[in-house]
Automatic annotation (TrEMBL):
Gene3D superfamilies: Divalent-metal-dependent TIM barrel enzymes, Hnrnp arginine n-methyltransferase1, Vaccinia Virus protein VP39
Transmembrane parts of this sequence: 72-95
Biased composition regions of type Basic and acidic residues, renumbered to the chain: 10-25
Location of the PRMT5 arginine-N-methyltransferase domain: 430-568
Pfam family, one: PRMT5_C
Domain PRMT5 oligomerisation: 600-776
GO biological process: regulation of DNA-templated transcription
Name of protein: Uncharacterized protein
Location of region: Disordered: 1-40
Keyword Lipid metabolism: no
Domain of life per record: Eukaryota
Length: 783
């Protein structure tokens, strides 16, 4: 739902910019370019206006109100130059750096359309006075819709995307569906705070034919229908399939935001309905289909079976009907495609004596807050028995507004409670806004278009850097206690300086008087950035840092010295074991009593249900055989301990130094394990985590419940080619291998699920990424 609403708003110039094995430091810098998502880019025209106004102010354009004609011409020239140069560049770079939380390739046509709408709205914003703000019931808890850049997050906190509020309305009258009073009701509801409305898709005329809804019938513009109106298809009972199919045909011919499907659960298994939606000889449905289902076990089973018959299309999404407010919240819905929650007015309670205002019961609030992390819609179904149609000024309108206000207030209070206070919490918020559900390739380079400040952001991880600082400070302090007054430190992969700064902080904390810091970095851009910091630093400690471009495997310290501490990335992705252990081979780099930070790291896996991520990769089989780094809340882990804790299995470990690691072939590992489903679930793949021991009890982890607030390291999503529908107590067997080919100088992963359902799926449960045919990581030759 979120994707559809934003996509439609983009087309009218109101679009909104959204937003290694598990977390290598370099992989954090790779997040900008390799994002795979399900839609295209949105960019807020209001942000364009703000940027343009700031540029004009800086150019001395505040005098534009002057009658001086020369000044006016100068300003107009600057505006035209800006529109023709800076805006196209800004739009393109913004897309390449951040995307919108959905990504995809930006076609020339879409880019031109997006640019045109941005320029048009910018000119309007400059030449026309701002609209007068209307009084509404809406409480905005999500903050501004301004698109965010990945810099200075401590100074300007990125706002969460707002939750969309909608209202599902009936016909004004059974006899005359398009009364004149509706011409004012719908536009007024949109003006008063609803983001979208849902109304019946049409009316059955006297001759038995369906007449589609028209903009003139309901007082909306054609553009409002496309961007803010959802249709509603209903069935009287389970035998009313023909009527539902006729209504769907009407909806196909009407340009709508989405269509709500309200039918009995038994009808979802009707083959006529399924065939209508999946017939290969017909064009696909041109809208999102929000399937109204109860959130209980029966509703979940009915929805997942229906979605499976639709081949897991992302256009079909569950709309959770909370008519029964006593159904407890089920976390597994986070693993499904959910458009939002539907709140019939009957679930709203009135206040105490003398208070007639509608309130949201605690049990319903739990569901609303449960989907807040997914930023999905809240739809209020108007039930006007005794009130009539909610026309302007009527009691029904007031009742609808009270219900909307109750939901908005609940959301606003929760978002206020979640406001971050510490730097780490602000980084966590930035992750939620900028990187939530963004799938990042392990192989992506840092985009060339990223400027230095943005690149610094991508390379920094304050939470993890602090742990490295603590680990190294304790290590150096232990050396002092042992009588060692000096320290030579080698940093492998210094990035753009954040990790090196943590090393210098640790040296200062440990009060080491005689020390050397050598940074070995393979990226030319990072080497340049490090050297700039060394040469331009006012901090004398930085001036002692020595930067060496090249490869750790061939690096040696001058004058036959050996390192007392080697600082390296905390995970085994990007062939870190091969780099570090080959570099340590022979004992010429690390002193006999030397320490490697980290000293050990392990990889863990668990089954994951995440329809949102899987459907974004399902466009091609190759993507479903490729692991991706991702921060996501749209997921559920169905294998649990009796305590409710997520059950994970350790698949392999590496430690440093390792005297048995004589060739890179020693980096091969294998795993086989079984997982029992605690509840019925659709398993879309594996989540792969790591846990690294930096020094003694100082650890970095991406395991559920163990990652620290604000940590940029992300788990790995390892998808299955086909989702597996498993019942409670079913067993999922998983085999996984880390392969190394010396002749090809490549490292890759292979994985294979085995379950009861694999028999009917045939080869789709076979080995994924066999022989590294789809995804592999090349070990660069020595240089």
């Amino acid at each position: 739902m979120e994707d559809s609403l934003r996509r439609r708003r983009r087309e009218e110039g109101e679009g909104e910019g959204s937003k290694a094995d598990d977390g290598h430091r370099g992989a954090r810098g790779q997040q900008a370019k390799a994002t795979i998502q399900g839609g295209k880019m949105d960019l807020s025209s209001s942000e364009m206006q703000q940027v343009l106004r700031e540029v004009l102010v800086q150019k001395g354009a505040s005098s534009s109100s002057s009658s001086n004609r020369t000044t006016y011409c100068l300003i107009l020239t600057l505006v035209l130059l800006y529109l023709l140069t800076v805006i196209p560049t800004s739009v393109y770079l913004y897309y390449r750096i951040l995307g919108d939380g959905r990504g995809g390739e930006l076609s020339v046509r879409d880019f031109t359309s997006l640019l045109s709408s941005s320029v048009t709205s910018t000119i309007k914003g400059l030449l026309l006075p701002p609209p007068v703000e209307k009084l509404t019931w809406r409480i905005t808890g999500g903050g501004s819709k301004k698109a965010q850049k990945p810099t200075s997050i401590e100074d300007e906190l990125p706002p969460l995307p707002p939750i969309a509020f909608g209202a599902l309305l009936p016909y004004p009258s059974p006899d005359d569906p398009y009364q004149q009073e509706a011409l004012m009701t719908l536009p007024d509801a949109l003006d008063r705070g609803f983001d979208f409305l849902s109304v019946p898709v049409g009316n059955k005329t006297a001759d038995g034919r369906w007449r589609p809804i028209a903009a003139s019938d309901i007082g909306l513009s054609v553009e409002q229908m496309r961007t803010r109106l959802a249709g509603h298809v209903r069935a009287r009972d389970g035998s009313d399939v023909d009527s539902v199919l006729e209504q769907l045909e009407v909806a196909r011919k009407t340009d709508l935001l989405a269509v709500v499907l309200s039918v009995p659960m038994t009808m979802l298994q009707d083959q006529q309905l399924v065939s209508n939606l999946t017939d290969a000889d017909r064009p696909p449905i041109p809208f999102e289909l929000w399937v109204r289902v109860p959130p209980d076990d029966a509703g979940w089973s009915g929805w997942t079976a229906f979605h499976r018959q639709l081949n897991y299309t992302p256009l079909a999404q569950a709309l959770l009907d909370l008519r029964d407010p006593l159904v407890p919240f089920q976390e597994r819905w986070k693993g499904e495609l959910v458009s939002g929650v539907l709140l019939p007015m009957s679930v709203f309670a009135t206040g105490g004596e003398g208070d007639s205002a509608r309130q949201l019961p605690a049990s319903v609030s739990e569901w609303v807050l449960g989907v807040m992390d997914l930023r999905q819609a809240v739809v209020i179904e108007y039930e006007g028995e005794g009130y009539g149609y909610p026309v302007v000024g009527s009691p029904g309108q007031s009742l609808l507004a009270e219900c909307g206000s109750a939901v908005a207030e609940t959301v606003a209070q929760e978002e206020e409670r979640r406001q971050p206070a510490t730097k780490a919490e602000k980084v966590e918020r930035a992750l939620d806004v900028l990187y939530q559900d963004v799938l990042v390739s392990l192989l992506a380079p840092i985009p060339e278009q990223v400027d230095e400040s943005a690149a610094d952001y991508f390379h920094s991880d304050p939470a993890t850097d602090m742990l490295y600082e603590e680990a190294l400070a304790r290590c150096l302090s232990d050396r002092l206690v042992a009588g060692h007054l000096d320290a030579t430190i080698v940093v492998s992969g210094g990035g753009r300086g954040a990790l090196v700064q943590s090393v210098l902080n640790a040296v200062s904390k440990a009060k080491i008087k005689k020390w050397d810091v050598h940074v070995v970095e393979g990226s030319d851009e990072a080497v340049d950035a490090l050297r700039k910091r060394v040469s331009g630093a006012g901090d004398l400690m930085w001036r002692k840092v020595k930067v060496t471009p090249g490869d750790l495997r061939t690096f040696s310290l001058p004058h036959g010295k050996r390192a007392h501490v080697l600082v390296a990335p905390p995970a085994e992705n990007h062939h870190s074991p091969e780099y570090i252990n080959v570099a340590l081979k022979g004992g010429s780099l690390l002193a006999r009593d030397g320490v490697v930070i980290p000293s050990e790291y392990s990889t863990f896996v668990t089954p994951v249900s995440t329809a949102r991520l899987w459907t974004r990769l399902a466009q091609t089989q190759d993507l479903l055989q490729t692991p991706f780094l991702v921060h996501s809340k749209a997921q559920f882990f169905p294998a649990r301990e009796s305590s409710g804790k997520v059950r994970v299995e350790k698949v392999w470990s590496f430690h440093h130094p390792d005297s048995t690691f004589t060739t890179i072939q020693a980096g091969e590992r294998s795993f086989q394990g079984d997982f029992t489903m605690s509840v019925a679930a659709v398993v879309h793949g594996l989540s792969k985590f790591f846990k690294a021991t930096l020094y003694k009890d100082v650890r970095v982890s991406t395991l559920p419940g163990e990652s620290v607030i604000g940590q940029l390291f992300a788990p790995l999503f390892v998808p299955f080619v086909r989702p597996l529908m498993l019942s409670q107590n079913d067993t999922l067997s998983v085999s996984m291998r880390r392969r190394v080919d010396v002749s090809r100088m490549e490292v890759w992963y292979e994985w294979r699920p085995e379950a009861r359902q694999c028999e009917e799926l045939g080869g789709l449960c076979g080995v994924h990424n066999a022989e590294g045919a789809v995804f592999n990581m090349t070990i660069p030759p020595l240089r």
